[in-house]
Amino acid sequence: MRFTAHWLFLLLSLPLVSLAKPDARPLYATHCAVCHGPERLGLTAPALLPENLKRLGRKRAPKVIAEGRPATQMQGFAGKLDKAQIAALVDYIFTPPKVRPEWSADRIHASHVVYFPELVHGDAKSAKPVYDADPLNLFLVVEAGDHHVSVLDGDRLEPIHRFKSRFALHGGPKYTSDGRFVYFASRDGWISKFDMYKLKTVAEIRAGINTRNIAVSADDRYVLVGNYLPHTLVLLRADDLSLIKVIPVRDDFGNSSRVSAVYVAPPRESFIIALKDFPEIWEMFYSDHPPRVFNGAVHDFHMAEGLAEKGPFPIKRIGTDDILDDFFFDQSYTNLIGTARNDKKGQVFNLIVRRKIADLDLTGMPHLGSGITWKRNGHTVMATPNIKESYVTVIDMDTWKTIKRIKTLGPGFFMRSHENSPYAWVDVFFGPNRDVMHVIDKQTLEIVKTLRPAPGKTAAHVEFTRDGRYALVSIWDMDGAIVVYDAKTLKEIKRIPMKKPVGKYNVYNKIHRSEGTSH
Ligand code: DHE
């Protein structure tokens, strides 16, 4: 009888034991904390917080934990952890911490490293690059496949250098006005300064836990960082990347907002800041010499009214009707074109009168940083693909009317051209035709050619050489390439193997703010 009760007890308790959910916290401490940090804020490996994991997604996470990530330090844990333990860890890292993590000024300071103090201020003006190539016709190619950056000679169309970047760079690298230095931001908040002459990383600092992008002031003195986590702007000195100040992003009611993106507006000597969570646009002035005049209007930033921050970097808060969280500017930086994500339509906001001056027929969801402008029939037009619908919208910037919707073979991410090219190139980033690239005649607004550089592999993001002679297309694959096309004949010239090259950035086109590319 006793024997039976004993076995009955064991039988009943067995399934309970095997069904009990493993405790993730000690598992995390044993296996993950050493690289990802005890608070999940990242250390030598990325932060493991829901905001930072959105792109990986919950579904793919167990596979990465079990099998690791190729070309990174992330090993597979299938031999050490069973399925239930991996599932518990996935739950844990996709759960927000009870207290929203902070990234204080002290932590930012502590992360700051200057690798080459002698390069911080740029050395002598006579300094020469350590390579024999036109430094203004170099491209930086961000290779997401193994988190590297290649430096490509735009004349010989050959790589001259390759270096390891921080994990998951995002947004365009930003050059100083002479093209000597460039700044990168990683999604994990690392900001790096790289010397384009000496080919060395000069300094780094971690400005946030989840960062959107950076902007560099037109006088090359400041770098502004926009963060999702924490809800802050971080202003750095551009020479050594040291911290100037952390600015919490709050409205009058104490609500805080994520920063959607930061931009520089050179003629206004200001940074424009897009917010994600309340309907305001912020403008931060960085010049030492107020007041300034532009487009005939005296700017009133010296007035205390409406300033979120006073002192040397005053911020003007501008209320808007809708949350506008993604911006594009006209070439004069007078008008800001924003998308209101809720309404799924665009608006033109004039920065001088500080109000909306037009609605735009921009449905879908344009990735506005990807829009470009050009002249057509005496008017300036802007064009943008969008990431939800299969067309490119072309808008007359005098009347703000849509003049054409060009049907494409799928939704697209990036559109690019060059002053010397009659064509605009747009990718089809999503769907079954993600391997094609459309070439559009800028005057007739017709697709004149559809290229399929690598059947079955995503073709994306075009950038032109300094003279506009060649167009470089990314094949977005681990076994990928940059495919170089003659921009006139549209014939392929060569392929340069690369590991998932995402974007490429020509020094000359960027520092001259070419109308055919992003700034
Ligand atoms: Fe980007 C630029 C926002 C997803 C690759 N992306 C930008 C910019 C913004 C932005 C605001 C302009 C900032 C700048 O360059 O300083 N991107 C967003 C999003 O909100 C979105 C849709 C969702 C997200 O995850 O953040 C998004 N972006 C992507 C991608 O999935 C892409 C294709 C791959 C990746 O690496 O994340 C991607 N975004 C890029 C690239 C640029 C960019 C390559 C710079 C383009 C350029 O030529 O300047």
What does the model show?
The chain is mainly beta. A hairpin with a 4-residue loop joins strand 7 and strand 8 (200-206). The termini are far apart. Residues 293-307 have low confidence and may be disordered. Helix content is 12%, strand content 38%. The chain has 8 helices and 36 strands. Bound molecules: heme D (DHE). Heme D binds at residues 55, 144, 170-172, 213, 261, 326, 367, 369, 413, 461, 502-503, 518.
**End-to-end Cα distance:** 83 Å
Low-confidence stretches: 293-307
- Give a quick account of the main beta sheet: strands, pairing sense, barrel closure: 5 strands, antiparallel
User: CATH superfamily of the domain at 102-133 and 159-278 and 280-319, please?
Assistant: C-terminal (heme d1) domain of cytochrome cd1-nitrite reductase
Radius of gyration: 25 Å
What's the shape? globular
CATH architecture of the domain at 102-133 and 159-278 and 280-319: 8 Propeller
Structure summarized in a few sentences:
Helix content is 12%, strand content 38%. By secondary structure, the chain is mainly beta. Among the domains are: 2-93, Cytochrome c-like domain (Cytochrome Bc1 Complex, Chain D, domain 2), CATH 1.10.760.10; 102-133 and 159-278 and 280-319, Methanol Dehydrogenase, Chain A (8 Propeller).
What attributes characterize this protein structure?
Cytochrome Bc1 Complex, Chain D, domain 2, binds heme D, 12% helix, single chain, 8 helices, 5-stranded antiparallel sheet, mainly beta, 36 strands, 519 residues, Methanol Dehydrogenase, Chain A
